[in-house]
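Annotated sample (chain length 86).
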Amino acid sequence: MNSTPAEFTRALRLAFGAAVSETHDGLLLSSPESKLHFSLQSEIPHKIGALHIATLRVRISVRQGDESAAQKLLAQVDRATLRGGG
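Output written by the structure step:
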């Protein structure tokens, strides 16, 4: 993703509030049907001239819930972390 860990965390907290908690290696998003864990690792930023674009590797694992519930929650995360562009 083109994001910093702080930006990703902020987007999740804005969308899901108290359902987001920090773990020793990332974030846990809990819903009544599913729990998703996001392991966050900053990568080397992309550089285009003087422009530096943050790069974040996000590994997602399902901690609780069936496949359908996890996919539904992940679709909500996708919408919450979209960024405008042009």
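Annotation: The helical segments are 5-16, 67-80.
Annotation: The longest helix spans residues 67-80.
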